[in-house]
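We close this part of the discussion by returning to an individual protein. Part of our work consisted of pairing the sequence of a single chain with a tokenised description of its backbone. No coordinates are needed to read the tokens, only the vocabulary itself. The amino acid sequence and the backbone structure tokens for this protein are reproduced below:
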Amino acid sequence: MAGAGWAPPQLEDFLLTERLGSGTYATVFKAYRKKNTREVVAIKCVSKRNLNKASVENLLTEIEILKNIRHPHIVELKDFQWDKEYIYLIMEYCAGGDLSRFIRSRRILPEKAACLFLQQLACALKFLHDKNISHLDLKPQNILLSSLEKPHLKLADFGFAQHMSPRDEKHVLRGSPLYMAPEMVCSRQYDARVDLWSVGVILYGKRS
């Protein structure tokens, strides 16, 4: 945790305010564009000193994938910048928080809402798989909601994503254990279909 005197990084064009979340390599802030539009964004600040070779490769793949795709149910990468200490991913801001928090606040999702979210997630996943992209870390914490009033699902955090055709097989362990397909947990070869297992686990968690 940051100390009382800790301040967020400084960016010329943005004012970073509320901290939205943090992980091993990065902290995400709500931010405002300083110019006339006062656009609200989320900025993922990746500390360079915490990066190793594998995490650098993952970050470069994440940027390369997100800058080349646009879909209504995938969070948009608007820009990326860097300085001596950080790499900044300037993302679409999703005011509804993540799906995990949304589910906890309601204990269980109504069937109608669960079906709508599943449809939106499947739509995003089909779009990715048609482009030979696998997310490989599907879980409620990586699924954002555009708002709380009329939420639209937005798939986020492509830190483990890979280019994979239907015939490609991998063996490197990626993702979060609770949502991994059995072949990943057992360190066997796997293919793009492991994303479908994760969707099933998410759906079970939403309705149980």
In short: Strands lie at 14-22, 26-33, 40-47, 77-82, 86-92, 133-134, 143-145, 153-155, 162-163. DSSP finds five helices and nine strands in the chain. Confidence is low (pLDDT under 50) at residues 1-5. The radius of gyration is 17 Å.
